[in-house]
C-alpha cells in the first residue's frame, strides 16, 4: 500500500489585544492539534500545553487506532485536573481542542476528526469549504434546538460560553468522526480567534491562493490579526497531496507510510 503524502504547516499569534498566547498547536506526521487554553490567570496556557503534549505522543505510533485517540483525550483531561490539584494557582484551568489524526480502522486508513469545545476543523476540497466539527457553545446549542437562527449565532452573547472542555470533572465526551482519505483535500484546524475575525469565504480564498500549508496557515493568522485579533489566533493546515502530483518534499512534508498488519488484511 502506497504511503499517503501529507504535508502540514502551523502558525499562532497572541494578537494585539491579549498579553499571553494561551493557544498551542502541534503538527506531526499523523496527528495534528489546536488547543485553546481557558482560565486566564488560572494558567490557560498550561492547560493547552498539557493537551498538545499528551496528544503529540500519539504521533509516534505507527499503529494508531480510534481508541488511542479517545484515550489520549481522556488522559489529557486527567492531566489537567491533576496539575490543578497540585498547583492551586491553576485551579479552574481548561482547554478546548480540535484535531485530525490518521488512524487504522477496518483494515484501512481513515482520518479521525475530533473536538471538544469551540476549536474547529474544516475540510477544503473541490473549491468548497466544509465545517466538520460542531461548536460546543451555548449559541450552537440554541441553533441546534431551533431557538436561534444560525445567522445570528456569530454575534450572539452566548457564542463564547463553552459547554465542553478538557479539564472538566467528569471528563467531557468529545465529538469524533471518521473520513476516508481523499487525495487533493486540505484540512484547517483553528482556534476561535480565526473564525471570529475571518469568514468562510475568506478562508477559501486564502487556501486557493496559497501553494503551501505553512504559507496558508501564516496568511490566515495574519489576516485575523489585521482584522483586530481580539483573541489568540492559531491555525494548522494539513494537505493530502494529489496522487497525480506527489509532493516534492521539503520542510513541510510528513509522510504516513505503514502497511496493514496481518489481522487487518
Automatic annotation (TrEMBL):
Q: Which GO MF term does the entry hold, naming one?
A: protein serine/threonine phosphatase activity
User: Which parts of the sequence belong to the PPM-type phosphatase domain?
Assistant: 7-240
The region called Disordered is annotated at 241-265
Regions of compositional bias (Basic and acidic residues) in chain numbering: 251-265
- Pfam families annotated for this entry? PP2C_2 (PF13672)
CDD domains reported for this sequence: PP2Cc
Q: Which Gene3D superfamilies match?
A: PPM-type phosphatase domain
- Superkingdom in the source lineage: Bacteria
Give the SUPFAM superfamilies listed for this entry. Answer: PP2C-like
- Return the protein name: Serine/threonine-protein phosphatase
* Originating organism: Actinospica acidithermotolerans
Amino acid at each position: 500500500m502506497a504511503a499517503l503524502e501529507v504535508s502540514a504547516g502551523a502558525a499562532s499569534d497572541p494578537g494585539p489585544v491579549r498579553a499571553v498566547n494561551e493557544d498551542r498547536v502541534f503538527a506531526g506526521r499523523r496527528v495534528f492539534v489546536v488547543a485553546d487554553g481557558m482560565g486566564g490567570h488560572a494558567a490557560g496556557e498550561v492547560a493547552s500545553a498539557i493537551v498538545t503534549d499528551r496528544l503529540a505522543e500519539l504521533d509516534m505510533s505507527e499503529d494508531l487506532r480510534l481508541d488511542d485517540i479517545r484515550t489520549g483525550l481522556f488522559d489529557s483531561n486527567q492531566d489537567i485536573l491533576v496539575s490543578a490539584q497540585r498547583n492551586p494557582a491553576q485551579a479552574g484551568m481548561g482547554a478546548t481542542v480540535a484535531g485530525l489524526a490518521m488512524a487504522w480502522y477496518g483494515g484501512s486508513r481513515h482520518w479521525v476528526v475530533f473536538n471538544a469545545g469551540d476549536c474547529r476543523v474544516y475540510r477544503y476540497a473541490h473549491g468548497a469549504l466544509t465545517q466538520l466539527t460542531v461548536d460546543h457553545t451555548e449559541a450552537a446549542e440554541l441553533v441546534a434546538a431551533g431557538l436561534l437562527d444560525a445567522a445570528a449565532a456569530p454575534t450572539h452573547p452566548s457564542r463564547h460560553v463553552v459547554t465542553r472542555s478538557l479539564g472538566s470533572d467528569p471528563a467531557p465526551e468529545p465529538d469524533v468522526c471518521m473520513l476516508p482519505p481523499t487525495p487533493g483535500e486540505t484540512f484547517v484546524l483553528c482556534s476561535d480567534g480565526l473564525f471570529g475575525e475571518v469568514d468562510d469565504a475568506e478562508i477559501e480564498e486564502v487556501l486557493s491562493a496559497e501553494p503551501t500549508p505553512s504559507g496558508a496557515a501564516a496568511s490566515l493568522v495574519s489576516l485575523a490579526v489585521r482584522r483586530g485579533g481580539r483573541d489568540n489566533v492559531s491555525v494548522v493546515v494539513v494537505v493530502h497531496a494529489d496522487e497525480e502530483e506527489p509532493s516534492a518534499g521539503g520542510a513541510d512534508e510528513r509522510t504516513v507510510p505503514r502497511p496493514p498488519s496481518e489481522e487487518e488484511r
